[in-house]
Specification:
The complex is a heterodimer of chains A (about 290) and B (about 1200).
Chain A lengths: L2 E10 L5 E11 L1 E6 L6 H8 L7 E6 L2 E2 L4 H6 L1 E4 L11 H11 L5 H14 L15 H12 L6 E5 L7 H15 L3 E6 L2 H7 L2 E6 L2 E6 L1 H8 L3 E5 L5 H7 L1 E8 L2 E7 L9 E2 L4 H9 L7
Parallel strand pairs in A: 3-8, 3-9, 6-7, 7-8
Antiparallel strand pairs in A: 1-2, 1-4, 4-5, 9-10, 11-13, 11-14, 12-13
Helix pairs in contact in A: 3-4
Chain B lengths: L1 H13 L3 H18 L17 H32 L3 H5 L5 H17 L3 H16 L13 H30 L2 H21 L6 H7 L4 H8 L4 H6 L6 H24 L34 H20 L2 H20 L2 E2 L2 E3 L3 H33 L3 H5 L5 H33 L7 H30 L2 H21 L27 H25 L8 H11 L2 H28 L5 H15 L9 E12 L4 E11 L6 E7 L7 E3 L3 E7 L4 E10 L4 E10 L18 E4 H4 L2 E2 L10 H6 L29 E13 L3 E3 L3 E8 L2 E7 L4 E2 L3 E5 L2 E7 L2 E7 L7 H18 L7 E7 L12 E5 H5 L1 E2 L8 H12 L19 H15 L3 H20 L15 H19 L1 H15 L9 H8 L9 H8 L1 E15 L5 E14 L5 E4 L3 E8 L7 E9 L3 E8 L5 E4 L14 E3 L1 E2 L1
Parallel strand pairs in B: 3-12, 19-20, 20-21, 23-31
Antiparallel strand pairs in B: 1-2, 2-22, 3-4, 4-9, 5-8, 5-11, 6-9, 7-8, 10-17, 12-15, 12-16, 13-17, 14-15, 18-19, 23-24, 24-25, 24-28, 26-27, 26-29, 29-30
Helix pairs in contact in B: 1-5, 2-3, 2-6, 3-5, 3-7, 3-8, 5-7, 7-8, 7-12, 8-14, 9-10, 9-12, 10-12, 13-17, 14-15, 14-17, 15-17, 15-18, 15-19, 17-18, 17-20, 18-19, 18-20, 20-22, 26-28, 26-29, 28-29, 29-31, 30-31, 31-32, 32-33
Classes of the chains: A alpha/beta (about 290), B alpha+beta (about 1200).
């Protein structure tokens, strides 16, 4: 059982933006979802864990490896898919993965060959293995990215927005693949798509403004909101009014009219009806603590 | 519509910074060149004004080449702006006129691209105002400006060049819509210019070269090549002649391109090709489980990672379009150079391996630099540009591995190019039937010079890119490091190769002496720089920006934390190794072997003159007998000298002190009986010995001087190329301290002298009749000795032969060394050479004289021909001038570090590169190799038997006479007078070019002041013409009689006036004017054939009529030329062929009016007519002297 313990990790950029603010997490084998709006600090956290960025203070231990001070050791057991995965021009998928396998320490060429073929097959690119990666579509490139994150025997897989640009079919295949490998290793998955977390993760954290605002299982978070979320279809003109009087979690358009969710310990009446909370409500209630209209 | 686009194009660009940056850049460059000597554009300005029309024109023409790259930006921008901004679909669907759009944009860009060129004028004008104002340059170095210079250069060069280049770039941009291809277009133009130039190196092809040059630069050089300084100062290029034709040709070519482009230009986008991709049905691969993986991290992993990095980097370079283009261009340049061959005065040199090496270095140089700069940036930024950096950065590899792989791929790429060039070189050698292919020399040269340079630059540039962490600033700094750094070092007067990146002693491969004396030093410097480069790579590896972008300070902090112990250790070891080597190199080049920088040398010369000029006229004895005992140790590069000299007081007063000017490197020791060292200046090397008993007039004394040159360690530069393993070559002036004030130490350039507060150097003593004081010294030994007896005992290593002038008295072996005792057969000038090498010897007996050629065993091919040449010279000279007083004539090969031949008494060292390696298989009977031998042989009479006084006209008596003698042996070899014209054209060219570059005053021939273009170039032309006009025997008689009076005589030495006394009686009254015109004044002719026609007569003969124009011109010493009335005899003639090889008829006619007509009858069909058909007279434009005859 691997364990990643992050303790009081902080990072402030030179322009004053606080990316990480006293982040502490404990993550074990399995899929871990990191949810948060854009700019919440998810990427900063993941890049710090992937040894690509320095932290100002705090510690992170992957088993007995000090992530911040032993980057070389971390890299040996790391699979990383960055938010933006590009490829070299004029190189085939096979060559690219082979090159990355060597970088990840797979020195036996027969093993490497089999591994690359296996991965290409898993991401459904086997018949395109000798094509130049440059000509791949965004989704295909992303699949190459996923394949490379699985190279080697990673203990820790970090995937930053892995499903961006994938069509639903590819997304499913990706999740299956992750679920396959995720049983024995730590997989940290960042996304702002709530559904991804619900479908995949046993544990999750919600980040906002550099802070962990929730850490636990998705279900617990939903349970905590049980009976406290109400919804109502309102008119556009009434919205500001509702915002003043209620703790609005979210509003979205349904059939051309705003449907608002509000948080309330008791039934607010006024035509509100209680709904079963979902992860989205959790997400918005956690990040929208000032209850502004979003 | 035209106006709209034209104005919008200009307005848009004037709002952008680019045009101003370019303007300032060019302005600054020209400004710097105007006010400083450290910046030069196309060579030194010389003696003309710094703002002379000629200088402005040169700057303008050269800057248009740079301007081309700027023009590319403007034209490319004009053509592609709308496409790049995706505005084309909107714009082209609007109702605009194609004409207005196309030409509006084009003309706008054309006008814009000429704006940066105005920087030449602005920089020049500012420089000539600020330069004198701030005291950077003397005000007298500037002359008036001429408005037509600016107007004419703009309309002759700037506008047409930008126009022509613009048509190509604009057309290519419109066709391919790709910036890279547009730049390729401009490169093609530049390459075309270079190739056109290298194909035409011979003066025969000058006109063709002038016309094919797209920039008009060569057309202008041909136009201005014989300009005198005064013409350079006053004349602006005009719309005439070749220059005008050239301009018209290229503007027309541009118009054709532009119109073609216009006709094919369309607003509609072509249908893009859609590739049909076939999905191949490949069997699906199925592997259910992940294979068992074994990751490992050890040295094997490092090695595999290194290899994998290397291959991906290497492939990315090889596959890039930029690389392919650069590679192609460098190959084209090399091949174009090879097509030109190795021309030497109309002959070809054999394609020796060292010639190929030099060519490869030249052809690859700039491209390799571009490749290294460009791809170092590309490779460093490759991951980030491809957005794969985070993935790669997060893999477990050491950054150094990746850096080293990048460096290696740069090195391998450049190596690849180099080997391709070697292949081309070898192929060229084989095609030319040359089979002595020295692969090992190719290889060693590559390793010693190029490979290490590639490694060094790769490391440095990778570090620059890593540290700067911005690709374009990185490029800028890389280029600055290459080009600006050397200028900075120059300005602060630092010459140590330890500071010039990649610097090392130069290596020059000689067939005789291999890579030469600089090799050891070069290897140490290479080690020093290699370690430096490794250190750069290690630093780059430690500070490599891994992960998110961070500043250098942050990266330093991270490195301090993260760089592993082992890595630090390696860095430390490398650092210590580097410092160790640096210490050793420093010790060798700065402590053990010191050197003086050029500024220091200048200063020393200046203070030497200031301090000791007062001793110039001090009474000194003459050397009246000399014995040299010389031990050469070629493999240690040591020389030990003992000279036993006899001094005689030939003055009228007692001499009480001896002055010496010494060279510290030779550590002289003096053994002067009864004397005391009373003055010693170590810094400037000036010694005075006081004689306890003064040397009375007529008395002699004997003394000894010992010197030695001991080489130790290695030097900053290649070192002394006179003392080497094979081919040591020294003379007595080098090995012995100079007696008395040494005038040759003085600075000569008048502007440098001014800097040190010295007046312009004294000119040579005026030519005077019945001279007393000045005729006591000749120009060879400058009064230190006259004709004396000399003996030499010289020893060398067992495998070498040592040679000094004189007959070999004895030869023996002692202590495993060869000893030789030489003794001059006749008193000679104390001008002696000492040579040692491994030689083959070819001998031939001519009467009682031994002709010997000492040559390297690789260079035997021309030796028989050389023996012939010596024999011919001996025959002609003894018959026509007088006896030969030595018992031997030796031609001795020495390495190519110098390219001359020189005559010592009976002994003529001859450089390996100018005679031994020239291909004479198809050469004419009269060729340059023969000519050089005949010239040096002639010096045995003209210099060694009779030598001129050290005053004006002195060198005419040796150099001009030697050239004349040589021409006479040539003349007797051939029966076709037109062959001599081929030969003489080099002399005409030498004279006319030389006077154009004269920095002081052009003197008439009989007052020549050791000016080479006069005593060689003009002297040979005049004397050759003279023997044609008055007869060879008359000239020879004058020379023989002159020789008879003065040979081997004690001073006073003869002057040119003494010779004129013998010459004048030989000249018929009708030609008396020649004395003044040719010898005593500067006379040129402007002859032209205006019309020439012929008709067949009834008797089967042909009548030729020709109208000629002829002017006689007198020039003053600074080049002012005035026409004078003509009343001269000039030849007219006809050729039977177009190539002017067969002179059918010739007649000398009296020309007494500028325009005259002649007619005469010839027997067979004439083809061309000419005035002065054999080119006897000096005529700045000779091409217009002949014309094809037309049938009446």
């Amino acid at each position: 059982m691997n364990k990643l313990i992050i303790h009081n990790l902080s990072k402030t950029y030179s322009n004053g933006v606080v990316a990480l603010d006293q982040v502490s997490l404990e993550i074990e084998n399995g899929m871990f979802g990191l949810l948060g709006p854009n700019g919440a600090g998810k990427s900063s956290l993941m890049r710090t864990l992937a040894t690509l960025q320095e932290a100002d203070s705090g510690t992170a231990m992957l088993d007995d490896i000090d992530v911040l001070n032993q980057p070389g050791e971390v890299r040996k057991v790391l699979g990383y898919l960055p938010q933006e995965f590009g490829v070299y021009p004029k190189i085939t998928a096979l060559q690219l993965l082979d090159h990355l396998s060597i970088l990840k320490g797979i020195t036996n060429s027969r093993e490497r060959k089999e591994l690359v073929r296996y991965l290409l097959d898993k991401v459904n690119l086997y018949d395109k293995r000798n094509k130049s990666v440059k000509g791949f579509s965004g989704g295909m490139k992303q699949r190459v990215g996923i394949a490379q994150a699985l190279i080697g025997n990673p203990k820790l897989i970090i995937a930053d927005e892995p499903t961006a640009g994938l069509d639903p079919g590819e997304r499913n295949r990706f999740y299956n693949l992750l679920a396959d490998v995720g049983k024995e290793v730590i997989v940290i998955l960042s996304t702002h798509i709530v559904d991804d977390i619900r479908e995949l993760c046993t544990k999750m954290a919600i980040m906002n403004l550099g802070r962990i605002v929730y850490h636990g299982t998705p279900q617990k978070a939903i349970d905590a909101l049980n009976g406290k979320v109400y919804q109502k279809v309102v008119t556009r003109e009434e919205l500001p009014d509702y915002a003043r009087h209620y703790s609005i979690i979210s509003n979205k358009m349904v059939g051309g009219r705003p449907l608002i969710h509000v948080f309330s310990e008791s039934d607010p009446g006024a035509g509100f009806e209680q709904v079963n909370p979902n992860l989205e409500d959790v997400f918005f209630s956690k990040i929208n603590t000032s209850n502004v209209l979003v | 519509m035209f106006k709209t686009f034209f104005l919008s194009e200009i307005k848009f660009s004037l709002r952008q910074p680019m045009v101003y940056i370019f303007l300032v850049l060019i302005g600054l460059l020209v400004f710097a060149a105007t006010v400083s000597d450290n910046v030069q554009i196309g060579g030194t300005v010389g003696n003309v004004f710094r703002n002379a029309p000629h200088v402005i024109t040169m700057y303008t023409t050269i800057m248009t080449i740079f301007g081309l790259l700027m023009a590319t930006a403007f034209f490319n921008n004009a053509a592609l702006k709308d496409f790049d901004n995706d505005f084309n679909e909107i714009l082209f669907s609007a109702p605009i006129s194609k004409f207005g759009y196309f030409f509006g944009r084009f003309c706008g860009a054309l006008l814009l691209s000429t704006i940066p060129m105005l920087g030449v004028y602005i920089g020049m004008i500012l420089g000539s105002i600020l330069g004198p104002a701030f005291g950077w340059v003397d005000a007298d170095r500037f002359g008036p400006f001429y408005p037509e210079t600016f107007i004419n250069t703009y309309f002759l060069f700037v506008l047409p060049n930008m126009f022509f280049a613009g048509t190509i770039i604009f057309a290519m941009a419109n066709k391919w819509k790709n910036t890279v291809i547009s730049f390729v277009g401009s490169l093609v133009i530049i390459i075309g210019y270079i190739i056109a130039g290298s194909l035409m190196s011979d003066i025969d092809n000058e006109s063709l070269a002038a016309l094919t040059d797209t920039f008009g630069i060569r057309a202008y050089s041909v136009y201005a090549k014989y300009f005198t300084p005064i013409e350079k100062n006053t004349l602006s290029p005009g719309f005439t002649g070749l220059l005008l034709i050239n301009r018209v040709i290229w503007i027309a070519a541009g118009l054709v391109i532009l119109i073609t482009s216009y006709l094919t230009f369309s607003f509609k986008e072509k249908n893009k090709k859609i590739k049909v991709v076939k999905e191949a049905e490949t069997p699906k691969y199925r592997l259910v489980t992940l294979p068992k993986l074994h990751t490992q991290f050890n040295l094997i992993t490092d090695w595999l990672q290194f290899k994998s990095f290397f291959f991906t980097n290497f492939l990315s370079i090889v596959k890039s379009v930029t690389f392919k283009i650069l590679f192609l261009f460098s190959a084209i340049i090399l091949i174009a150079n090879l097509f030109g061959g190795f021309e030497y005065f109309g002959l070809q040199s054999y394609p020796l391996t060292y010639k190929m090496i030099d060519l490869i270095t030249n052809a690859s140089g700039i491209f390799v630099i571009i490749i290294l700069v460009f791809f170092s940036g590309e490779l460093i930024w490759r991951d980030r540009d491809s957005k794969i950096n985070e993935v790669v950065d997060a893999t477990p590899h050491t950054s150094f591995i990746s850096m080293a792989a990048k460096a290696l791929s740069l090195v391998v790429i450049t190596t690849f190019i180099h080997f391709f060039f070697i292949l081309v070189g070898v192929t060229y050698q084989l095609i030319n039937g040359y089979t002595r292919i020295e692969l090992i020399v190719y290889l060693l040269d590559f390793v010693y010079t190029s490979l290490l340079l590639y490694i060094i630059w790769s490391g440095v540039m990778i570090m620059v890119q890593v540290l700067v962490n911005n690709k374009y600033i990185g490029y800028f700094i890389s280029i600055a490091v290459i080009f600006v750094w050397s200028i900075v070092l120059n300005i602060v007067d630092v010459q140590s190769n330890m500071l010039a990146i990649g610097g090392r002693p130069s290596l020059e491969y000689s067939d005789m002496n291999g890579f030469g004396p600089g090799l050891t030093g070069a290897m140490w410097f290479n080690t020093y720089w290699f370690l430096f480069s490794l250190l750069c790579l290690l630093i780059a590896g430690a500070l490599w920006n891994r992960g998110s972008i961070s500043s250098l300070m942050q990266r330093l902090k991270i490195a301090r934390k993260q760089v592993p112990q082992q890595y630090r250790l390696i860095m430390l070891v490398t650092l210590f190794a580097w410092m160790g080597v640096a210490g050793f190199v420093y010790y060798n080049t700065q402590v053990l072997n010191t050197y003086k920088t050029s500024d220091e040398l200048e200063q020393l010369s200046a203070s030497f003159e200031k301090k000791y000029k007062k001793y110039e006229k001090v009474n000194l004895p003459k050397i009246t007998d000399a014995k040299y005992f010389i031990d050469l140790f070629p493999y240690k590069r040591d020389v030990q000298v003992r000279a036993v000299l006899q001094y005689t007081n030939e003055t009228n007063s007692p001499i009480d002190s001896l002055h010496y000017n010494i060279d510290e490197d030779w550590k002289p020791e003096f053994f002067i009986p009864n004397s005391d060292l009373v003055y010693e200046d170590k810094e400037l090397g000036y010694l005075i010995f006081q004689l306890r008993t003064p040397l009375q007039p007529g008395d002699s004394m004997e003394l000894e001087i010992e010197t030695k040159s001991v080489s130790q360690g290695f030097e900053n530069s290649a070192g002394n190329t006179g003392i080497i393993h094979n081919g040591t070559f020294l003379n007595n002036f080098e090995i012995l301290p100079a007696l008395g004030y040494n005038e040759s130490m003085e600075l000569s350039d008048k502007n440098t002298r001014k800097k040190y507060g010295l007046k312009p150097k004294d000119r040579m003593p005026e030519l005077e009749e019945n001279c007393t004081e000045h005729c006591m010294a000749n120009y060879l030994t400058d009064g230190r000795s006259d004709f004396i007896n000399v003996e030499t005992v010289i020893s060398t290593s067992a495998d070498q032969i040592a040679i000094a002038p004189g007959s070999l008295v004895r030869k023996w072996e002692e202590n495993g060394r060869n000893y030789y005792h030489y003794k001059a057969d006749h008193p000679s000038q104390n001008f002696y050479s000492f040579i040692s090498a491994k030689y083959e010897i070819a001998t031939r007996k001519w009467n009682d004289v031994d002709i010997e050629v000492y040559y390297d065993k690789k260079h035997g091919v021309n030796v028989e021909l050389m023996l012939d040449a010596v024999e011919r010279s001996l025959t002609y000279y003894t018959e026509n001038f007088g006896q030969y007083y030595h018992q031997q004539c030796r031609i001795i090969e020495f390495p190519r570090y110098e390219t001359f031949a020189q005559a010592f008494p009976g002994t003529m060292p001859y450089s390996e590169s100018i005679g031994f390696v020239i291909n004479l298989e198809d050469a004419e009977e009269n060729n340059i190799v023969d000519a050089v031998i005949a010239h040096e042989m002639a010096h045995q009479w003209w210099a060694h038997q009779v030598v001129g006084a050290n005053m004006q006209g002195g060198t005419m008596l040796s150099e001009s006479f030697a050239e004349y003698s040589s021409l006479m042996t040539m003349k007797h070899l051939t029966n076709n007078p037109m062959k001599m014209r081929e030969f003489l054209k080099y002399d005409h060219d030498r004279y006319l070019r030389g006077r154009s570059g004269e920095v002081d005053k052009e003197m008439p021939l009989y007052k020549v002041e050791n000016q080479m273009y006069i005593h060689y170039g003009k002297g040979s032309v005049i004397l050759y013409a003279l023997q044609d006009y008055i007869g060879e025997d008359k000239v020879n008689t004058a020379m023989r009689n002159f020789l008879e009076e003065f040979k081997y005589q004690k001073p006073p030495y003869p002057t040119s006036l003494d010779f004129m006394k013998y010459l004048e009686p030989q000249i018929p009254d009708s030609l008396n004017y020649l004395i003044d015109d040719w010898f005593k004044e500067i006379t040129l002719y402007d002859n032209r054939l205006n019309e020439a026609s012929y008709k067949e007569l009834e008797n089967g003969k042909y009548e030729v009529r020709m109208n000629i124009e002829s002017y006689k011109i007198k020039a003053d010493t600074i080049g002012n030329e005035t026409r004078v009335p003509i009343n001269d005899w000039i030849d007219i003639g006809v050729f039977s062929d177009k190539d002017e090889e067969n002179l059918l008829f010739e007649k000398r006619v009296k020309i007494d009016r500028p325009e005259m007509s002649f007619s005469f009858v010839v027997d067979s069909l004439p083809a061309k007519a000419a005035i002065d058909p054999r080119h006897l007279l000096i005529d700045r434009v000779y091409d217009d002297n002949s014309k094809t005859l037309v049938l009446e």
